[in-house]
Amino acid sequence: MGEKKNQKHGNTPLYKIWLYIDPNCESCIEKFPVVERLTEIMQGENIEIDILWRQEPKKTLVDTLDISKDKQYRTGSIKVLNEYPTYFITDEENSVQMISDDIDKIVKKMLSLDEIEKNAIIKETNIYLKKLIGQNDKQKQKLVYFAMDGCPDCQNVEKFLNP
């Protein structure tokens, strides 16, 4: 979507997380804040977050994203048979490592990879949360929710927060 055309970088990311979406899909558009958040948190760990559009999005939609146009691509005549939204993890050679429609599974996979420094991502997440909570927006209330894997109480709250 940006100016970049099939360029190889000397600074190839170790992994990429791709979000395959349709610009006319409401649930796809709802995933943007998560993708923008991941972009900010994981950028220091040599993980790139990219968007793969099923078809040409409206310019106004592309401009509202806090993701560089150089990290947004259109499939053109290539048809991906997965439903959308779908996340892909690819490595340096662009080999697909995982496909899922669940961002939580994607993040868990990224954190389990040996080459990824989990503590650095935790540190970046803490910095992100401090900035988010520290914003002086008196109009909106904020809810910060922490959960543990396998905790039945956390799973019940998760059902309530994500109906």
Throw out a few tags for this protein.
163 residues, five-stranded mixed β-sheet, 6 helices, 5 strands
Describe this structure in words.
With 163 residues, the protein is an alpha/beta fold. It contains 6 helices and 5 strands; from the N terminus they run βααβαβββααα. Helices cover 36% and strands 17% of the residues. The protein has a 5-stranded mixed β-sheet, covered by helices on one side. A hairpin with a 4-residue loop joins strand 4 (86-91) and strand 5 (96-100). Helix 2 packs across helix 5. The longest helix has 17 residues, at 118-134. The two termini are 33 Å apart. Mean pLDDT is 80; it is low at 4-9.
Summarize the structure.
This protein is an alpha/beta fold and 163 residues long.
What sort of overall outline do the alpha carbons produce when their principal axes are compared?
A: globular
The topology string of helices and strands comes to EHHEHEEEHHH
Radius of gyration based on Cα positions: 17 Å
Number of helices: 6
